Amino acid sequence: MLAALFCTISAFAQGRKGLVFNEVMVQNDSNCLDAYGRRHAWIELFNSTRASMQISNVYITNDKSVPTMYGVPRGDHNTKLGPLQHVLFFADNDPGKGTFHLSFELTPGVDNHIYLFDADGKTLIDEVVVPANLPANCSYALKHDGISGDKDDKNVKFHPECWEVRDGAALGYITPGEVNKVESTNSSVEKFRANDPHGFVLTLMAMGIVFSALILLSICFFFFGKLNEKKATRKKAATIASHPDAPATIKGDSGEEIAAIAMALYEHLNAHDKETTILTINKVKKAYSPWSSKIYTLRETPNLKTW
After folding, report:
1. Which end of the chain is more exposed for a tag (fewer CB within 10 A), N or C?
2. Alpha-carbon distance 121 to 119, whole Å?
3. Which residues are CB-contacts of 240 (< 8 A; sequence separation ≥ 6)?
4. Sheet of 163-166: strands edge to edge?
């Protein structure tokens, strides 16, 4: 029980470490709206793990000396993030609007330090510094979702080489609540198409896989048949050995013997041409009906005698 509890706690702690800042917009004049139809600065978190994560009770703050500035409340089912899922928080200093409205704002024109603390209010999970020169309606985003460098490297704290400024056009897409790297094409598919424009290699690969599977199945059936044959021979030998007149050697049944046995069983089990559970009534056709025959009727008036 203690071991299972320890494993659960360890997995939970490890999962919180996979929660990272993914994209931030400080000045939002023409970007996404909140549920009330208003625009505010926003912060995107990303679950970079392959497991679901409950983010309630984590803290988001812009002042490291006050790590518990905003605690994500419990009881909201939307705070459970699925694997590789995003969630958006609005920095509008109005937490009364709901779970995803922070109790602080971001200030344009200055470096904005943002911190993510675990439920104990002491363990720093992630942090990011949004540069002061970030233009309005531009976001500061990771180049790839969840990749912000080696968190164990104490000499590299903010990993600015992993971040980039996006303007929604030439400098990259702004993707609140979505994946940061939008793939318009599949590089692997394009490379394969360039190397095999007519599809001959793909055809040969597909046929090779099919025939290889058939050969493998044939081999499996052959060896399983041999195995069952040996098992049946051993069982038959043990049965014959239990009788005093058992022969010295045991040979497998020939194909003719097996066919004869199968035919005998078939004839025994199918002795009737009708199903045993069905009552078959055949209609009998006669030239006359005995009920209407005149030979069974009275032709003379009875002679009444007085006794």
Report:
1. C
2. 5
3. 246, 247, 250
4. 86-91, 41-47, 19-25, 139-142, 163-166
Q: Which residues pair with residue 113 across a beta bridge?
A: 129
User: DSSP assignment of 243-291, as one string?
Assistant: STT--SS--PPPHHHHHHHHHHHHHHHT--SS-TTS---PPPP-SS-TT
The more confidently predicted of residues 301 and 260 is 260
Does the pLDDT of residue 214 top 90, yes or no?
yes
Q: Over 80: is that where the pLDDT of 219 sits?
A: yes
Q: What is the pLDDT of residue 157?
A: 42
pTM for the whole thing?
0.57
- The rounded distance, in Å, linking the Cα atoms of 96 and 78 is 17
Task: Round the average pLDDT of the chain to a whole number and report it.
Answer: 80
Beta bridge partners of 24: 43, 140
CA atoms within 13 A on the CB side of 164: 17
Q: Answer yes or no: are the C-beta atoms of 116 and 102 closer than 8 Å.
A: no
Residues 269-283 have a mean pLDDT of 59
| Residue 138 structure tokens | 């531009």
Taking CA atoms, 238 is separated from 184, 245, 247, in Å, by 69, 13, 12
How big is the CA angle at 254 (ends 250 and 259), to the nearest 5 degrees? 135
CA end-to-end distance (rounded Å), the chain = 111
CB half-sphere exposure, 307, CA atoms < 13 A: 0
Question: For 79-99, what is the mean pLDDT?
Answer: 94
Calpha distance 140→160 (Å, rounded): 10
CA 46 – CA 97 distance, rounded (Å): 22
